[in-house]
Write a structure and sequence with these properties.
By secondary structure, the chain is an alpha+beta fold. The chain has 3 domains: about 120 residues, no CATH class; about 70 residues, Peptidase S8 propeptide/proteinase inhibitor I9 (Alpha-Beta Plaits, 2-Layer Sandwich), CATH 3.30.70.80; about 170 residues, Peptidase S8/S53 domain (Rossmann fold, 3-Layer(aba) Sandwich). The protein contains 10 helices and 22 strands. The strands form 6 sheets. The chain has a 6-stranded mixed sheet with strand order 17-18-16-19-21-22, with helices on both faces. It has a 4-stranded antiparallel sheet with strand order 3-8-9-14, with no helix packed on it. A hairpin with a 4-residue loop joins strand 5 and strand 6. The longest helix is centred in the first third of the chain and has 19 residues. The chain starts with a helix and ends with a strand. The relative contact order is 0.11.
């Protein structure tokens, strides 16, 4: 006779093997289509994602993280309040910790169902039942209704104005399939150009910022900095106190307070020479797609033109508690911070206009990334800056969706006025040969 201890050990082993093989949500989808490529899916065994009940979502409002059953890491866990989805990291890392958290979450009355979580581009991809489809020929209303009923989906958004025949779809409430499986099934339909899941994800911000972005005011001497023998003397020298630290704009080899020594004079973007021609024009609008941007900041408020909050679904791009590191504000400052106001430093194009688009955060999806490009182009961006991307390791490919590719490739309307459209500035992942920042003209 098998002892109870033996049966318990076998049950534990079976549970462990199922979690290792399938992931916490028992994810059964092994691939998806992304950017025209078939991508293998790997379950993320260190995260658990759940959809909350409608009553729980209404009761929570816009809390940063809901109080749910189980031991989870509050710093690594996130709540996507627009979608009612919680992405939780166990306090005990690994498969067993995720399995324990999974059981406790599913026992919580506020939890409706568990969602598959995959590893993608060094971040997580949550299948929360949405997908993007483009038809070869825009369907009639009757054809669309038949198509929706066949696959158990409903229309969330019509993308016809930008991508003819394209829709953002979501599973109907009575459809127990996954978004990935339905997207894969539709991809086999000869009437569609592409069908890809719209994942909820966590792309990473690029560059180093400090929580709260504290400012240090430095008394710099323009004579010492720019009047030294053998160093060119630009005709325009910003009087902003932190300009001496901005070696990327003007590198003299000397830095205030001996913070750095031995710099290479002239190893900069030659900004001061460009400023002799122009500081920029407010009609040339630089769109910063990032997290929240403090448009009331003393160095940004005079440059602000327009903006939106895709993350929160509002028109206000100001930071919230989710944007605690000030990344978007710092990036905007590097681009257009006011010159000559005696505060902080200055931007590389201090005369240009600022468009602030709040995108990054727990609610970010693949289609929302595409919408950011759409919004920037429609509202007259001349340059689009994206200092963010997947958080993967060296050598990992970053497969953007067909929707995102179409938007970034199609941002010509409303561009610089010369028919070429906006410039798209991305900060790419580090490569083995070194950091690769590039500007790609579209």
């Amino acid at each position: 006779m098998v002892s109870s201890k033996c049966r318990g050990a076998r049950l534990l082993l079976a549970t462990l093997l199922s979690v290792i093989c399938l992931g916490p949500a028992g994810a059964r989808d092994t691939y998806c289509w992304r950017g025209g490529r078939r991508i293998d899916l790997t379950p993320n065994t260190g995260m658990v994602a759940v959809r909350l009940t409608p009553d729980a979502v209404r009761g929570l409002g816009r809390q940063r993280l809901p109080l749910l059953n189980g031991l989870y890491d509050t710093k690594k866990s996130r709540y996507a309040d627009r979608w009612g989805v919680a992405i939780m990291a166990p306090t005990v890392p690994g498969v067993l910790g995720a399995a324990q958290l999974e059981r406790s979450l599913l026992a919580d009355p506020k939890v409706q169902t568990e969602l598959p979580v995959y590893r993608g581009d060094g971040s997580y991809w949550v299948d929360f039942g949405r997908l993007v489809v483009q038809f070869r020929e825009p369907p009639s209303s009757t054809q669309l209704a038949t198509f929706l009923a066949r696959y158990g989906v409903q229309v969330c958004q019509d993308l016809h104005n930008w991508l003819p025949g394209a829709y953002v779809l979501a599973l109907t409430p009575n459809n127990s399939a996954t978004g990935v499986s339905v997207a894969n099934e539709i991809a086999e339909n000869e009437r569609v150009i592409f069908s890809e899941p719209d994942f909820l994800h966590n792309y990473k911000k690029r560059g180093h910022t400090v929580a709260g972005t504290p400012k240090t005011t430095v008394t710099a001497s323009p004579t010492r900095l720019f009047g030294s023998k053998g160093v060119r003397s630009p005709r325009l020298i910003p009087t902003d106190p932190d300009f001496g630290y901005q070696w990327h704009l003007q590198n003299t080899g000397y830095y205030p307070g001996n913070m750095q020594t031995g710099g290479l004079p002239g190893a900069d973007v030659n900004a001061t020479a460009a400023w002799n021609i122009t500081l920029g024009s407010k009609s040339v609008v630089i769109a910063i797609i990032d997290d929240g941007i403090d448009i009331q900041h003393e160095d940004l408020k005079s440059q602000y033109v327009t903006g939106t909050d895709l993350q929160g679904g509002t028109s206000n791009p100001m930071p919230t508690s989710e944007d605690e590191d000030g990344h978007g504000t710092a990036v905007a400052g590097m681009a257009v911070a006011t010159e000559g106001n005696g505060k902080g430093g200055c931007g590389v194009a201090p005369g240009c206009g600022l468009m602030a688009i709040r995108l990054l955060g727990p609610n970010e999806t693949d289609d929302m990334d595409a919408e950011a490009f759409r919004w920037a182009a429609i509202h007259g961006a001349s340059v689009i800056n994206c200092s963010w991307g997947p958080g993967g390791l060296f050598g990992e490919p970053w497969y953007t969706t067909t929707n995102v590719d179409a938007e970034s490739d199609g941002i010509h309307p409303g561009g610089r006025g010369d028919g070429l459209g906006p410039d798209l500035c991305r900060q790419q992942r580090p490569r083995r040969q070194g950091l690769s920042d590039f500007l790609r003209r579209r």
